[in-house]
Amino acid sequence: MTTHTGRGRSIALAALAGLVSGAVFLATAELLALLVARDASPILAVGGFVIDIVPQPFKEFAIATFGSNDKIALLAGLGLAVVIASAIGGVLQYVRRPLGVVALGIAGALSIAAIVTRAVVTPFSFLPPVVATVVASLVLTVLGRRLRRWRGGMDVEGDPDRSVDRRGFFRLAGVAGVSAVIVGVTARVVTAATSSIDALRGAVRLPTPRSRVSIPAGAELNVPGISPLFTPNSAFYRVDTALTVPTIDPNTWRLVVDGMVDRRVELSFDELLNMGVDEYGITLTCVSNEVGGGLVGNATWLGVPVRDILRMAGPQAGADMVLSRSIDGYTASTPLASLTDDGLDAILAVAMNGEPLPAEHGFPVRMVVPGLYGYVSATKWLTELKVTTFAADQAYWTPRGYSAEAPIKLSSRVDVPKIDTPVAPGRVAVAGMAWAQTVGIDRVEVRIDDGAWIPAMLSNAVNDDTWVQWMYEWDATPGTHYIAVRARNKKGELQSQDRAPIAPNGSTGWHRVLVTVSS
Ligand SMILES: Nc1nc2c(c(=O)[nH]1)N[C@H]1C(S)=C(S)[C@@H](COP(=O)(O)O)O[C@H]1N2
Ligand SMILES: [Mo]
Fold this sequence. Notes:
The protein is an alpha+beta fold. It has 3 domains: 4-194, no CATH class; 233-400, Sulfite Oxidase, Chain A, domain 2 (Alpha-Beta Complex), CATH 3.90.420.10; 411-517, Immunoglobulin-like (Sandwich). The chain contains 11 helices and 18 strands. The protein has helices at 4-36, 42-53, 56-66, 70-95, 99-118, 127-151, 163-194, 197-202, 269-274, 306-313, 336-340; strands at 254-259, 265-268, 278-285, 296-305, 321-326, 331-335, 347-352, 355-356, 366-368, 382-388, 411-416, 426-435, 441-448, 454-455, 457-458, 468-476, 479-489, 511-517. The protein has a 5-stranded mixed beta sheet with strand order 2-1-10-5-6. Strands 3, 4, 7, 8 and 9 form a 5-stranded antiparallel beta sheet that branches. Strand 5 and strand 6 (331-335) form a beta hairpin. Helix 2 crosses helix 5. The radius of gyration is 29 Å and the shape is globular. The termini are far apart. Ligand MTE binds next to loops.
């Protein structure tokens, strides 16, 4: 006879057996992934799959809540789900054999399904989930049997005094649990260290560009707290769907140009560099940038015009779009005309601010197109340019609520004074950034409270594809004040005052900040 507390304790021990088997599953899979198929880690494959299937509002919520930590939050959530599922699996196995083993089988099957949707699949890709399922099932079966002999189960009279099975249970749970943690953590760390992107980036020899961006005098205003003219790589915003940053060896990288072309073209990294590179100054902007937000950055890029590469392939009549594809399956749809236009610097970039592209920013090759939001142009970890039509192909974000074509909207923002830093009365530098890629900024105006719009001073633009800094010297009076900014482009168009959300093709509205001036 088992008492209520005795039964509760048995269930807790069954859950422990489940947790140990869950850990064994993950550790075995990580170890095999390290040894035979680096892309076939179940936890990363399932995570990547989840990112692709969660509804858009949830993704926006995750980015808003966790910011750049959204992937860590996802992995933590996934980890918690694994813990709960493992514990339940352990209890199931104890209460009704072989339900726990069935649960492990389902976990293995889900892992295989996720791996198949993510990675380049080889027969080895199946080894990590299959072997993990077998090993974890063995551990769970043995733990469950010892537990039932010791504590009793649905169909076995237990004997709480059976110290042989009690010791056997704890010994196996301990050894398996500790080994799983050591093996799992070691496998992850070794995987991370040996596929070192640093080593691959360090080996790249960048060619000397044939031309450089010339920076005019007065391109950078001297205002404390304003965004720098060129955003350091370490501070550059990052937006992508990649759970782990792809590691691409430039020696094996190939760009394929296919689809509606006269000749399929395949280029190696060296062949691309040998076409000759130039330096470009281009400001990148994300469609998810809210009014006043930070999802915009400016860099110098070394690259080759996309039009030169498309010319080698010969786009056919009727084509109107290029679907660029990343190694992780991400795609962007860019109007063919933007990429063949002689007056537009659409490039395949290999360097950012003087160094090979950082891993997070698309190493070894990405696309950069002035004037188009990143999601329809700036494909990182680029592997393919497919010449096609908007009618025939859809890019990643198109069925997810974003426009197939999306020019960057004329915009401006206040950087200083910062909302939460009170300023002293008197002369205060109000300053920020404005951008109108491909057109250029003509003027920026500032308004204090309900006053008149006053022209701000502009920095000398590097070119029409980069943002400019603006500054207004304000004679601040004590109290709280609203500072608003708006820009006009070189076509005479005024930045839209209407508030638009980021979906489907970018936010609009004038940025306004509240500042407190001390007395
Ligand atoms: N492979 C890949 N490329 C991608 C994306 C992505 O999710 N995957 N996101 C795009 C988006 S939405 C933007 S705004 C830019 C951001 O580039 P960055 O991360 O270098 O700033 O990359 C684009 N290129
Ligand atoms: Mo974006």
